[in-house]
Design goal:
Elements: E1 11-15, H1 16-24, E2 34-43, E3 45-50, H2 58-67, E4 73-76, H3 82-91, E5 98-101, H4 105-113, E6 119-123, H5 128-132, E7 136-141, E8 167-174, H6 179-193, H7 196-205, H8 216-237
Parallel strand pairs: 4-5, 4-6
Antiparallel strand pairs: 1-8, 2-8, 3-6, 3-7
Helix pairs in contact: 1-8, 3-8
Length: 242
Amino acid sequence: MLSAPADGHAVAVYIGDTHALLATGAASWTLADLVPLVRLQKMPSFLFVRREAKWKDFEELERDVKANPGRYKTAILGKGSIDEVTLSFMAARGFQTVLVPYASPSERYASLLGGHTDILYEQAGDVLRFLRAGEMRPVLVFNERRVKEFPQVPSAGERGYPVYLPQFRTIVTKAGVSKEIVRAYERAFLELARDPEFRRFNAEENLATEDSILGSEATRAFLERELSRMRYLMEQLGLRRR
């Protein structure tokens, strides 16, 4: 997309883990190289355990992890990811597990279900089939408040871990595209977002939050806030490249 002409013919899905590359200092682009068109999804992440895990809730898990630092393993996406930032933040507060990276989502899920790891960091919509089958269960949600789909699951802030880095899906194009093209894309995507089938898909299949949909300017402001938050956390935790 960035190598294409700035004529609006090339757009990209831009997600939280891609955005995190800017915060690590590993990206070859800057936020100024992009024009956000819309945000279509925002999903909080969770900690999941297997159905048969010995911990009935996060309180029991937290107590065990703090008593046995480094004994348990958490499946994550990889280095420099939102996963690593969040779990490193928790480790600094005593919730210390071994972070095991799996680039493939299916490998992450299999590692938990097969007992190779003990905890999974993921969005609920991505493991919905396992939740519906009762093979996994959530114990903590990284959101400012509990979510209605899992009212029994505490928010991270409740347990003393105020770190909220949601996964999201935005649509972006290359900087330099005309305002007319940006407005045309924005109108089209916002019309799509109002479609009942898309709203059902977002809510029921992805468990996206009700405030997911943002227009172009609001999406830019959101990306700037998230980048600032991630950079601050990474610097505090020693994860940012110098």
